[in-house]
Each structure stands twice: as C-alpha cells, then as structure tokens.
Amino acid sequence: VLINNAGFGINKAFSASRLEAEQEMFDVLVRTPMRLMHTIIPGMKERKSGIIINVSSVASFIAGGTYSASKSYLTVLSESLNTELATSGVKVSALCPGFTRTEFHERGRMKMGGLPNFMWLNSDKLVEKSWKDALANKPVSIPGWQYKLLVAVISTVPRKFVRQIGMNVRKKQR
C-alpha cells in the first residue's frame, strides 16, 4: 500500500508568492508522488497486488493556482494509472476531498472563518470512504454529497464561471 498524503498550500496569489515556495509545493504535490509511484509500481505488478491512494483535492476540478494545477495532475495521473494497471492487480485511486477538519488550513495560515459548517468533512469518515473506494478500484473518490454536487455542477457550467469560483475561494482564504 502506498498513500501519497504529503501536501501544503500557500495563502498568496501565484503572482505575489515566492517562486521558491511555488516550486517547493510543486515538488511535494507532483514530483514526489510521481517518483514514489514509479518506484513502487513494478514490485506491485510483480506481486499482482497493490493499492495506491493519491490524496488529491476537489480543487483539482477548479482553477486555483499551482495548488489546483498540481492536484489536477495527481487526479489525472491516478485515473490514467488506474486504467493502465487495470488487469495487473494494482489499484490506483485519487482521493478528492473538499474542506476537511485537519491542521492543513491552519498550517497554511488560511482564513476559513466564513465557511458554513456543512462544507467541512470529517477526516475519519473521509479515510473510510477513500479506502472503500480504493478497494472497489474507483479511479476517483469524492467524499461528501456537497462535493459530489459541486464537481457535477462544475463539469456542466462554462469554464469562465469555474475559474471565478476558484479565484473567489482563494481570495477568501488570504
């Protein structure tokens, strides 16, 4: 089992943040999971067994700077590997949660005061859902009715609207 769970966010706009911080985030969110998967998959294939869960984000479906772009990469790569490895016994799933009660936002010094309570996910339930979906070989796991609905709506509205949602969320976190 490999669970790629490392991550952090930056509470500044791309154009206002330090390039080094953006590169560090890219390394943690993209390069490290890719390297770990590339290293571990051959052994999993040889054993005809393995589960990889990549902790992505519902942000992978919206526009929100390097964080969203990196999470989009992780979601799409997970989907691709799920298909590529379908007959190998190796299961790959992208977990795409929304706002979850962890230290993530606090560590990133993000303001979350105005977010309604129903938008927060419980981390224990999220882990349970993710594991169940990984065992079922679902390429993408989206816990919470509110985030399933959000992703469904996002996939049907014009991208201009989706970009604006992403920017509005990011501005409120600063």
Q: Going by CATH, what is the homologous superfamily? A: NAD(P)-binding Rossmann-like Domain
Low-confidence stretches: none
Q: N-to-C SSE series?
A: EHEHEHHEHH
Count of DSSP H/I helices = 6
Strand content: 5-15%
Write down the domain tally: 1
Estimate percent helicity.
40-55%
Strand segment tally? 4
- The CATH topology corresponds to Rossmann fold
Quaternary organisation of the protein chains:
single chain
Radius of gyration: 16 Å
* Overall SS class: alpha/beta
Name of the level-1 CATH class: Alpha Beta
**What is the CATH architecture assignment?**
3-Layer(aba) Sandwich
Question: Overall 3D geometry?
Answer: globular
For the biggest β-sheet, the strand order reads: 1-2-3-4
Q: Mean pLDDT, rounded to whole units?
A: 86
Task: Please characterize this protein's 3D structure.
This protein has 174 residues and is α/β, with parallel strands linked by helices. The chain has a single domain, classed as Rossmann fold (3-Layer(aba) Sandwich), CATH 3.40.50. The chain is built from 6 helices and 4 strands; from the N terminus they run E-H-E-H-E-H-H-E-H-H. Strands 1-2-3-4 form a 4-stranded parallel sheet. Helix 1 packs parallel to helix 2 (65-84). The longest helix is centred in the N-terminal third of the chain and has 29 residues, at 19-47. The chain is globular, with a radius of gyration of 16 Å. The N and C termini lie far apart (36 Å). The model has no long low-confidence stretch (mean pLDDT 86).
